[in-house]
Amino acid sequence: xxxxxxxxxxDRERIRGELLAAAADDPGIVGAALVGSAARGTEDRWSDxxxxxxxxxxxxxxxxxxxxxxxxxxxxxxxxxxxxxAAQGVRYRVCLLPTSLQVDVSFWPHDxxxxxxxxxxxxxxxxxxxxxxxxxxVRRMVGMGWLFALHARxxxxxxxxxxxxxxxxxLREELIALQCVRAGxxxxxxxxxxxxxxxxxxxxxxxxAASVRLDELDRSRHALLALFQAEVRRHDAALADALAPPFxxxxxxxxxRGSRAVDGLD
Length: 266
Prior knowledge:
There is one protein chain. The radius of gyration is 23 Å and the shape is elongated. A hairpin with a 5-residue loop joins strand 4 and strand 5. Strands 3-4-5-2-1-6 form a six-stranded mixed beta sheet. With 266 residues, the chain is an alpha+beta fold. The protein contains eight helices and six strands. The protein is 47% helix and 14% strand. The chain has two domains: 116 residues, Beta Polymerase, domain 2 (2-Layer Sandwich); 113 residues, Nucleotidyltransferases  domain 2 (Four Helix Bundle (Hemerythrin (Met), subunit A)).
């Protein structure tokens, strides 16, 4: 028997249909589209509800958003909400239902309503011309990576194991993003990391710390930094050359505390 507290796909479909009907009846909304996995045809058991709404030109956005949130609380018992603001005033109100279903409703100023990434199934309204996100910022990923590597080193040197865990996790995220970009995969929040080749996934696994012991975290730091350095070279050899001295210096502190090479790097 399924857990009655957990949402079912039929619940998700029902709620999505009810929200679309509410949007069609709301004078402050003149357009709606499904976005995300429902629009791409990739929904599975764990997908959430993603709905984009086009506001009427004269809509009072804060009042409309609060009215919609009250409506959802009355109907579905929203446990909490989170607002994420995108460029030019687009608000994403993320709602968590008691069943753990996530419902994302984005409110778009009238002239900004458009497709901005693959997966936009218009239900009604008139969107503007579609746009596409810019290319991933590889230089920023590299910069954030070496920054996290520096802080992982200092945290370990100070004996701050949990800070080191966090810094190594962030370093791994930047490494994964770079690997996904190179492989033509989506780097956003690790969405496509499981589609990397088996050798890359094995190296990531080998570089993960098995405990929060200082020597094991330092081993992980060495392995991650080696992987990161090799990945930077695949993207930008000149930048990798410039970073070689500080990368080497980062490995001086704690060298020999259980570090081991990562196989197969080229």
